[in-house]
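debug: dumping io for the single-chain case to check the tokenizer round-trip. Nothing else runs in this session.
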Amino acid sequence: FRLNWENYVTAAQGGEERGMVRLYERGGGYQTYRLPQGVSCTESAGAACAYERHALEDNELLRMRGGEVTADLRDRLGLSALTLRRVNELLAPLAVAERQHAYIRRVGDGTVEVYGTTRGVAGGYEMWLSAVVDELGLSIELEYDTAVAGLFRLSRIRDASGLSVRVYYPDTEP
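debug: decoded output
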């Protein structure tokens, strides 16, 4: 059983150094993103590393490396000013370690997905979807529960108006 909100970027140990990450899609499947030939994310100049645009779906993935989305990146991605402001608001409160590994993906319809929730796994890490922002700067935010040992699961979904839905799991909650 998979929820439609379960998607994340995974960087296996050594994968980033080779310039490759996988993005597991909502609903199943994955896309592989590669850095341009000869570029390393650890050596790349600037605040973000841009992976090659996904040819079939016109999606573009950036690793933020602790920075914010600048006007240059906004123009490259074709983001509205409202989307830019909201994405930067979502990235700002992340812990330093999460900002270093945060990703954003612009999908073909102009929506931006923010991957800002870290989950350590053997041999690497996963960055889970933490928000989806539309062209008007309206967002859906996702929170995860790690209180139960060994589990990492969606616990709350908050909409643009601030209303939230809490996800209950009957096997571990009263």
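debug: round-trip ok. The mean pLDDT is 83.
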